[in-house]
Design goal:
Elements (H helix, E strand, L loop, with lengths): L2 H13 L5 E4 L1 H12 L3 E8 L2 E9 L1 H11 L5 H9 L2
Antiparallel strand pairs: 1-3, 2-3
Length: about 90
Amino acid sequence: MNLTLANSLLVAAEEQPYGFLNVRGADLVHQVELMAAAGLVDASIGHAGTEAYAVINRVTDSGQAFMRAFKNQPPPPKMATLASTQN
């Protein structure tokens, strides 16, 4: 699972006025499938013709905890090293 993308999708779903987030495209749909399997979201997956789509119906309590943990994480070591060399 791409953790950065997962966090972005969770945040986007939370920002929706009714809590539903529609995504299209095989890569995003696969990411939502992984997130649903991990218990981060309740989601519906389907196909419209040949195009895959997913709907994040709601962010679960585990998804909320993930967003809190992700928000409080320091930057990855590579970024921290880069930041310290620029000072």
